[in-house]
Amino acid sequence: MTQEFKVPPVILKYKGMFDWDDLYNKMIAWFQQRDFDFYETLYKDKPPEKELSWMADRRVTGYFQYQINVEFHLWGFTTIDVVKNGKKRKMNKGRMTITFSGLVRTDWEGTWESSPWRKKLETFFNNYIYDKEINAVHLETLYYMVYNLHDKTKEYLGMSTAGSAY
Amino acid sequence: MGERFFVIEGLSLKYDGLFSISELYKLIDEWFQRHGYEKVEKRNAEQVLETGKNIELVIEPEKFVSDYLKFTIRLKILVEDAKEVRIEQDGIKKNMNKGAVDIGFQGFLITDWEGRWEQKPSYFFWRTIFDKFVFKSHIKEYEGKLATDVHQLHNELKAFLNLYRAR
């Protein structure tokens, strides 16, 4: 039986000018650099509104898997021409909410699902033997990975609160 | 979640003038990291308007003191009409912000943060007895430690902003 341990979601809100293509590519590159398999599960483009859902997962061991979910919701999305450093380029303007969340999945390959006895053994394993490791190692690591992506997104958007001491 | 004891409420800091938003954020982040708090950013909203930037930031870092107790400091930072300005300081050109900042501080202590003593009414009863009579002096001691943390952060931010005023 696959069990999931969740990292609380982090929400980012932004209104102003940004480079959508650049943000999109840089965020995907963040996942690729960290060996995540990336899937775009939703791309809804209904101008001037956009909705996207991303799911990225990474195998940690045969037993543990990390998953990061990102959800975008954009309103009033428009393309404008701006002159930056003497060069004319296309930028975007709008309002967006990005929600980042994550989860640690145990027995993601389902190898412990073959019998009721093994399922019970997995629950015992997670609750008593792996309890500290799940919380202190895996959830903690994923928690700061989610914050790192959140922080990088702030940087890509040029937000004033970009940067992290953690 | 367990019982929440409000230790600090209504403490605030207001500033209007030149400062750097990114340096202020960095200072807060580093302070919490140095004092053993886990990062929790509850709300981060930024609006870039023609009149300047409006930022609303709510952070609630947590420090797990034990399996039973944790400290939470809530900072609500509001920045209004922050304009980007370029200044020259000691011959070096720097990007700064000019605007108003309002920081609200709250500190609370949470007992039984894992909610282990809430599973049965009898457990809840024993937890209340425990908090009110047995653990009372310990809670008072930890309340003092949390209050020190909040006041220290408040003073550090005040000194940081006053430094800009002195320039």
What can you tell me about this protein's structure?
The complex is a heterodimer of chains A (166) and B (167). Chain A has 166 residues and is an alpha+beta fold. Chain A has one domain (3-157). Chain A has 3 helices and 5 strands, in the order βαββββαα. Chain A has a 5-stranded antiparallel sheet with strand order 1-5-4-3-2. In chain A, helix 1 (20-33) packs antiparallel against helix 3 (131-157). Chain A is elongated and about 65 Å long. The two termini of chain A are 34 Å apart. The model of chain A has no long low-confidence stretch (mean pLDDT 92). Chain B is α+β, with helices and mostly antiparallel strands and 167 residues long. Chain B has one domain. Chain B has 3 helices and 6 strands; from the N terminus they run E-H-E-E-E-E-E-H-H. Chain B has helices at 21-34, 121-134, 136-166, and strands at residues 4-19, 41-49, 52-59, 62-64, 69-89, 92-111. In chain B, strands 1, 2, 3, 4, 5 and 6 form a 6-stranded antiparallel sheet that branches. In chain B, strand 4 and strand 5 form a beta hairpin. In chain B, helix 2 packs across helix 3. The longest helix of chain B is centred in the C-terminal third of the chain and has 31 residues, at 136-166.
